Amino acid sequence: MEDLSFIPDISSGPLDVYRKSASFDWKRLKLALEGDIELLKLKYKIWHTLENDPLFAHNRVTPTVDEQKRITQLQLKRINEYKFHTKETFRSSYTKRTRTLMTINEAVQSLNPSVSVKMAIGIYLVSNALLSLGTERHLKFYEAIIVNREILASMSLTEIAHGSDAKLMRTTATYDARTRQFVVHTPDFAAAKCWVGNLGKTCTHTLLFAQLITPDGTNHGLHGFIVPIRDPKTLETYPGLIVGDMGEKIGVHGIDNGFVMFNQYRIPRESLLNRTADVTEDGVYESSFSDPSKILGAALENLSAGRVGIMQESCHSISSAVAIAVRYAASRKQFGERDAEIPLIEYELHQWRLFGYVAAAVVFRVYVESFTRVYLGFVEKSNAGIRVDNLSEAVSEIHAMVSCSKPLLTWTVLQAAQQCREACGGHGFLKCANLGDIRSNHEPTVTYEGDNNVLSQQAGNWLLRQYASARAQAAVDSPIGTVTFLADHARILQQLFHGTETRHLKTAEFITSTYKWLICWLLQQTHDKYESEMASGQSKFQAKTKSQVYRWKSLTTVYAEYLVVIFSLESIEKKEKELQPVLYKLFYLYGLWSLDKHLVEMYQGGYARGEAPTRLIRAAILELCAELKGEIVSVVDALAPTDFVLNSVLGRSDGNLYQNIEQALFNAPDTIGRAKWWRQAVTKTTSKL
Amino acid sequence: MEDLSFIPDISSGPLDVYRKSASFDWKRLKLALEGDIELLKLKYKIWHTLENDPLFAHNRVTPTVDEQKRITQLQLKRINEYKFHTKETFRSSYTKRTRTLMTINEAVQSLNPSVSVKMAIGIYLVSNALLSLGTERHLKFYEAIIVNREILASMSLTEIAHGSDAKLMRTTATYDARTRQFVVHTPDFAAAKCWVGNLGKTCTHTLLFAQLITPDGTNHGLHGFIVPIRDPKTLETYPGLIVGDMGEKIGVHGIDNGFVMFNQYRIPRESLLNRTADVTEDGVYESSFSDPSKILGAALENLSAGRVGIMQESCHSISSAVAIAVRYAASRKQFGERDAEIPLIEYELHQWRLFGYVAAAVVFRVYVESFTRVYLGFVEKSNAGIRVDNLSEAVSEIHAMVSCSKPLLTWTVLQAAQQCREACGGHGFLKCANLGDIRSNHEPTVTYEGDNNVLSQQAGNWLLRQYASARAQAAVDSPIGTVTFLADHARILQQLFHGTETRHLKTAEFITSTYKWLICWLLQQTHDKYESEMASGQSKFQAKTKSQVYRWKSLTTVYAEYLVVIFSLESIEKKEKELQPVLYKLFYLYGLWSLDKHLVEMYQGGYARGEAPTRLIRAAILELCAELKGEIVSVVDALAPTDFVLNSVLGRSDGNLYQNIEQALFNAPDTIGRAKWWRQAVTKTTSKL
């Protein structure tokens, strides 16, 4: 057994009673959820290092937004100086290097999401894009950005009037053969690049996507360029640019999101990221699809890496949220019989409100850890030029998986954060409970890196293509194997709900087979609706828009839940024996709690009939809640970061709820004493009361 | 027809196309939703007055929390000075006076919720409580608080360790016959009164609820006292008190929520609010239930007035949120065919995401307006000593109605605010879109004035009592008539889903009869579960906790939706003819959109069978969305306050979306130019890039 003494023990206190009832060692579960002891050690190293650095100390009073931007920038610089990544990191395998960088990102994100977003965009995303879209001449930027951390970059894609529809971006880069430069131009404010993280105040370069126009007037579509924005020495912007900050937002206040308008701004020809296409000095456009598998691998990485990162971060956000709410529920007493008050966690309603999200936190982590391995394995093989069968099909499948998983995870975590806040009552509304910040910092993830509603439609496209193949008795293109079962769709659609007792439902077989039926049925519904719209004379575009509600959208949700189910199941089967009982309970709870949301479709499609399916699924959920009550505090101990990182007066591991609130109140600077502005607050009165 | 020229016209612009397609005059609808032209005029008078006062100007940069508290306090003082309520207000009938004060509250809330909460607690709630719990000797406080606005009060009930369970509050007021004083004492920090609005920095008096103990040691339970906290001239707290501010919160930053610990703090005997009970000078406790009907009326008002106010405010919050999202959806284009981009509002998915909430905003307003009349009518009659049949039963029914309506409305509005933010994409994440503040300022309403999950259980208690009567063939105690149909429960439970076309579902009859079935069935389920738990030896307390999930909780939700349905229906029937088509469409949409969430119960209970019910309900919802597309912009024009009050760069009525964003960005002080802290942000580098 590995030595886990690097994980700090939890001090004895009011929660002992719930910790002693657990069937497992929470540190073992923590390791199992991380999946790699070295990465877990790295996380603790980062957390301890930052806890000991006053630059990362928590503020009792929220600084102004400008000050938050300053602190975030300094924290990022400090993290770069700590070199949690080493030169060795960049000499190791792609998978190892990337896992290390991802772990650093996760550790930082759970403490300050603004810093991790700044880092993820300005360092990881841009440097990855340089590798995949650029060539040797751009390596100096790669080195400066990610290896030496000398410059901070940004990525300019979205425009004021266009976000989801990237094709219609209107910023142009017109080649001028005379000077061998591209002339970048923004036609009007609606075409200003916007929401660009790091652009508002700090980045020196941006990776710009603009329509490439050759001297003959041909528009060759969006291409990437590396463009200087600010003088690195003075941080003043260059002439020909109007660069501004987007101003205040709802969350992630430490990020300086910015906008930029280019006024005939000239950049060298070599700024074009020219891996797939280039413009000759004379202005001739040349496409070079010499090595399709590499290009595909690169494309895959570009599209998905950011979203995989968001899924990892989402796992940490939900872990923190449920840890706070569960520890609060175990220490907060309210009502009871004969004045013997009982903790909230004893109430079935409270269990039901929270435990589904605890289960989601666990299976999401297991899923994302497992999926990340698969994902990085494909990219690594592709980068290394190893021949991968069906690479293009695998790329499509991974893209579909990410396109629906990112929405499922981010939305579920958003709901979880809200439910956790409500479950902590009024005290949950305290800023120092941290549930508000967890929520508002998480919130933009449902929009950025692909709006959830738009992004998930792409998974639907892929699923419908596979279904069409299956209907035509052709092979389903599913190298990862997530929908090979579609070959069997006709038989699956004949299946009916089976089970007469809850124990029949608390099985992997029931959960996976029900999901297979749901996917097949929703595919059929979506397909039929789409075809009937087409038959009635609608265009493909119209037919697609008319097939979203109750069909396409539900389909992609169900597919994403199925992915969580099958990946986490496969992974749980391999975990150590001692952990399996609790992991299976959490798995069953997540599966049934998720299926419960699709009961209507089960009835509509004839899979479920009568009262039994609803009664049994719901009874099983409540049984699992009761069974997990004695485990759940230790489960959240395994999910939670250190108390310093969790930063919640309600969620400290010692469970000394009221002492911790008292300490927080009496250490805030403005708690006691009249306001400085008391003279203005007084009302003149003559009456004596 | 009334002259509605006091409502400013909307300037012509990009949204004209959607406004011209409306079947009605939006100003007529606005009046119909307000229900009273004088009150509508008052609202506009307030909005225009505050728009012209720089003290109420919007900030481009969010002030510190302390500064927000200062501004809020000054705004409240200024509003008091404006005297939107007049001396006459206090001479008019109870109903008229209260409607006027409620309208002022609504108008202020839609501009700055912190001011309205400060006012609602510190002026309305406390003065109402003084009237109903106090006697003549407390009238001077009433006068000073609400008529002359000389002192600002607060209400101290919740303690650190007890919120929902008010009976277990531990603050004591022990009578000392020697000095004829009560000695107020807080045993420890867990018993500190907390979350008290206005207590943190500004109030001079608090209405305290404490356990009254007589010299013989008897605890007579919670009683109200009016207690001095700060010297009105200096705002310094008195000796014997530790008063502090709760610090930062998630929203309503302008309110100084505070806590207080009493250390043997002496107050005069006359501080006791002695309408229902008093302590003689010698220390003898005397209860005086001389006029039960008045006491009941007073109790009703105390319990419900705050919650009715929250429902009214919720209607304004959802109105603002949907106005922003719908106007954005009508002006924001994305995707389309052959590069002809189409507005988001044309997408069925987008309609489905938003229009249900627009319908909710309308029917909620109609419901609350109508319910408020009923409610105030009862209180007025009761106050005036007019004999009301079944007063105590009516009080119980109204309490049940409020106890489930406040949760339904506040939760729906919270979801609406979130959906509206997401529907505005990244731009919705801008602080100046105002959706973040609408959401976070609304959020505490699901917790305060009775936690939604706890409060709604009280409606369940009442419903189950009525069901027990109905089962026993006894009379159902429902003077308002909301559940008189329970007498018919056996026949109702025999009913089945009927209808073979969507037009059969788009009827008041279908919606109300389905709700009646749902209420009867969920009553049966909840009752049976409770009885079976009792039969298995559980205590009443345990049986109740085991009947919440899927039963009690669903029951109270369905009952609340039914109340919205029947009250809004009755009111719509009386509206002018020109408005009825659009109001009925909105009503049907709300009804079916809400019923859609209970399809599982319909199948489980055998009311629905096969695919038709789901298919028809969902088809009807999408048909209604399509039918409302041409109406919806004018509907939100009727819901929205003025542009100044709405304060959203995305939701201005002119629809000039990108110009408005441009203006907002270029008028914020920190948009352009490098950060003041640029020297710290620079990274030393030798490379030339």
From TrEMBL, chains A, B:
Alphabetized InterPro entries for the sequence = ACOX_C_alpha1, Acyl-CoA_Oxase/DH_mid-dom, Acyl-CoA_Oxase/DH_mid-dom_sf, Acyl-CoA_oxidase, Acyl-CoA_oxidase_C, AcylCo_DH-like_C, AcylCoA_DH/oxidase_NM_dom_sf
Query: Does this UniProt record's set of keywords contain Flavoprotein?
Result: yes
Acyl-CoA oxidase C-terminal domain residues: 509-684
> What cofactor does this protein call for?
FAD
Domain named Acyl-CoA oxidase/dehydrogenase middle: residues = 154-263
One Pfam family cited in the UniProt record for this chain: Acyl-CoA_dh_M
Any idea which UniProt keywords this protein has? FAD, Flavoprotein, Oxidoreductase
**Which residues belong to the signal peptide in this entry?**
none
Family per UniProt? Belongs to the acyl-CoA oxidase family.
Q: Which PANTHER family match?
A: ACYL-COENZYME A OXIDASE (PTHR10909:SF223), ELECTRON TRANSPORT OXIDOREDUCTASE (PTHR10909)
Name this polypeptide is given:
Acyl-coenzyme A oxidase
Q: Which organism is it from?
A: Loxostege sticticalis
